[in-house]
Amino acid sequence: xxxxxxxxxxxxxxxxxxxxxxxxxxxxxxxxxxxxxxxxxxxxxxxxxxxxxxxxxxxxxxxxxxxxxxxxxxxxxxxxxxxxxxxxxxxxxxxxxxxxxxxxxxxxxxxxxxxxxxxxxxxxxxxxxxxxxxxxxxxxxxxxxx
Length: 146
What we know:
Number of domains: 1
CATH architecture: 2-Layer Sandwich
CATH class: Alpha Beta
Structural class: alpha+beta
Largest sheet: 7 strands, antiparallel
Helix content: 25-40%
CATH topology: Alpha-D-Glucose-1,6-Bisphosphate, Chain A, domain 4
Radius of gyration: 15 Å
Number of strands: 7
Shape: globular
Strand content: over 45%
Order of helices and strands: EHHEEEEEEH
Oligomer: single chain
């Protein structure tokens, strides 16, 4: 999987969207494939924390991301460790819209260890991205004002 970028409009203020996206420990309840989350202390300069993800998408794997924040406009990450990825970096870029909505640009750049056919990685992205966006909207809807 190489680079992926998509835009989505969430119902919710920029502050509420930003706050909801930071609720890492709730991701297993809202995001497909996420089976466990552990929020860890920061381990990189200027990082706010590390988040250890455990997922089951075709097979079980984990990765740990160093998380960075610029409230309420940007969340971004860099890979710290993984049993399947060589690289994982990305961001949520948020922009306030009228009517209590927020435009979110989601960027992701992932490189997996070993050879994985592009058709498989593209299929994973195609099926998981829409469900992920629906899950995040539900998390935003269920999350109180941040």
